[in-house]
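Posting for a labmate who doesn't have an account.
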Amino acid sequence: MARKMFREAIETYKEAPPSAMLMNKIGIAYHQLADIGDAERYYARAVKLDPMFSEAINNLGTIYYSRHSYRRAIAQYKKVLRIKPESAATLANMASAYFARKQYDLAQEKLDQALAIDPKVLENHGGVGAVVRDSSVIDRPTFFYTLAKSYAKRGLNEEAMNFIRKALEEGFKERAKFKEEPEFRELRKDPEFEKVMAIEPKVL
């Protein structure tokens, strides 16, 4: 798995006695190979072997998310949080699903919770670990704005500035929000803020 030899990893895992952990690992290997059907099958097997195995439940959620079944994904993430309330990766996944459903307040709330637990959760992709985090979003400009707001709330100004820049580069149209909303008050004192605000709007 560490060497990204996923087919070989699958064959090796299948030789071992079945366990929830191994079924989850096989699911992740299939997921990495973009074989969503087999990934779902093995995540489901992991949950059947251990209904409290939160990592596999989360990973089932990412399968539903990838199919745009956001309501089903959120249901899985809620199950995880009942077992493991401090799962930053699952909270970040849930934020993405709420965002996809245009439930922006709930998305912001879950992002804030995720960053409070682990400020670097968005950098930890969990590609070959136990938990899969789906970072794909449809409305990238608004999502970057939401991330900027979450980081600014926590005083993580460098990260907030980075996402303000990304939001504007992606064509975020409501740039007045950065100059008006209270979460960005401290950032507005930074000379770099004005430079970022001067980024020309993207022509679409």
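Reply:
Got it, the structure tokens are right above this. The chain has a mean pLDDT of 89.
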